[in-house]
Write a structure and sequence with these properties.
single chain, 452 residues, Immunoglobulin-like, 2 domains, 7 helices
Length: 452
């Protein structure tokens, strides 16, 4: 699920939980690195439906990094001096040695649970939805291109088909997760407005709600306040008159078409690779290490979450789409840019802590040693932080301090997290470290400080 970040172009935080502290921090990072504010931010019909089948595409990914939904900004390849950061020499092409796998998230499907293959998308829009033609074109593009195969094929996800359905109905003013499931069931049987699950297939209904509809998700969060999109399965599959199906909710938060497109790709990819969210015994591909800060933060667990803030502007010949990149476990283990498809002009960039967890005595500080890393030479980017609380045994730290507010490939600095005197042994505090270069992209790494 994608949680909402405000103010900056193409900045949406993804998660299966809410963290309002993230919003201001990403905005601050973008502002510090020169991002303009206010443009686009990213995160269910009865007309004649058209079905697209997956074929090889001639569409190409443009060599442009996305800055807003309607424009783009290309990152220069020069580095700049960084006050407060040391200049550690680099060794590999364009940078320092490959990241240590121990500090990377690990995407796994330990129970070998099924994924959606093929992905049978049903693009659902309501009367008056401002982006109907564009999101229908997006569904058709995903069906006819190799974007999904390139991005999530390694997880066993197969080809994608798309059926476009305009309901001819006005969208509701409010919708809850329960009412959304009821609406889907009512419009499949007996109304027949939505295509029913075919034999041996399970559809993914992608419902695009306008800005006038306030959606409340299963956790009680509200659209455009705590999330911009999410995906789930219907809860009572055995009792449902429709049978099993999956659905994704895409909210329009008034931040532009580019964000709607990237939210949609985010949720489609995660629904395909990790379709069973409620049924924990059937969970698919995600970071399942409950001790990892990625999972502890309840922010970054699925394959789109891990590449939140990384986007491509895709030239499909007849249209341009703003699409999020997706985490490739194979690429990450190979030491390259982990978010795919790779942007040929904008390298992937982030910080690499020496450890995701540091323990220190109460009354002292946990010190993380950070190294800037990019997959090719890149100018310096801005660093900011914000705090988050682990679910259990949390403490409130002193204000985290960065040794430098900018960093570039191969440069090093520190993050110091004060642990108050009297903090119980084993208590933990979390900190997000944000990197933002000013073109609307960003990266986030969670770390945890423990009291000894």
């Amino acid at each position: 699920m994608r949680t909402l970040a405000l103010a900056t172009p193409i900045l949406m935080l993804s998660a299966c939980g809410n963290n309002t502290g993230l919003n201001a921090s990403v905005s601050s990072a973008a502002a510090a690195s020169g991002t303009t504010s206010g443009a686009s931010t990213s995160t269910g019909t009865a007309s004649t439906a058209t079905t697209s089948t997956a074929t090889t595409s001639t569409a190409t990914t443009s060599a442009t990094s996305t800055g807003t939904a309607s424009g783009s900004a290309t990152s220069s390849a020069s580095s700049s001096p960084n006050s407060g950061a040391s200049t550690t020499s680099s060794s590999t092409s364009g940078g320092i040695p490959d990241p240590d796998p121990s500090i990377l998230p690990v995407i796994s499907n330990p129970n070998h649970n099924p994924v959606l293959s093929p992905i049978e998308v049903v693009t659902v829009t309501f009367t008056g939805y401002p982006y109907t033609s564009q999101v229908q074109a997006l569904g058709d593009y995903l069906a006819h291109s190799n974007y999904i195969a390139e991005s999530v094929g390694e997880y066993g996800v197969g080809a994608l088909t798309n059926t476009n359905v305009d309901t001819g109905q006005a969208a509701p003013m409010t919708a809850t997760d329960t009412s959304i499931q009821s609406w889907i069931s009512a419009n499949v049987v007996p109304a027949g407005r939505l295509p029913a699950p075919a034999s041996g297939a399970t559809p993914l209904y992608v419902l695009y709600y306008p800005a006038s509809t306030q959606v409340t998700n299963q956790a009680g969060g509200q659209s455009c306040v705590s999330f911009s999109g999410y995906h789930l399965e219907n809860f009572n599959q055995l009792l449902s008159s429709v049978g099993a199906y999956y659905y994704a909710v895409i909210s329009d938060c008034g931040t532009g078409l580019g964000d709607v497109e990237s939210i949609a790709l985010h949720e489609i990819a995660e629904a395909a690779s990790d379709p069973q969210v409620i049924n924990v015994f059937q969970n698919g591909w995600a970071d399942r290490d409950t001790a990892s800060p990625y999972v502890q933060s309840n922010l970054i667990t699925e394959i789109a979450d891990l590449c939140e803030g990384q986007y491509l502007e895709v030239d499909a010949g007849t249209a341009l789409f703003t699409l999020q990149q997706l985490w490739s476990e194979a690429a990450a283990l190979d030491g390259g840019a982990p978010c795919v498809p790779v942007d040929p002009l904008r390298p992937y960039y982030t910080v690499l802590p020496d450890s995701l967890k540091v323990t220190a005595a109460a009354g002292s500080s946990a010190v993380f040693h950070l190294t800037g890393w990019s997959s090719a030479p890149l100018r310096a980017w801005a660093l900011t932080t914000s705090g988050w609380s682990p679910a259990l045994n949390a403490f409130t730290p002193g204000t985290p301090q960065l040794g430098a507010t900018t960093l570039s490939n191969g440069q090093t600095t520190t993050l110091t997290v004060p642990i108050p005197s009297g903090t119980a042994s084993g208590a933990a505090a979390g900190v997000y470290i944000y990197s933002a270069i000013g073109d609307g992209t960003y990266a986030v790494v969670p770390v945890m400080a423990y009291a000894q």
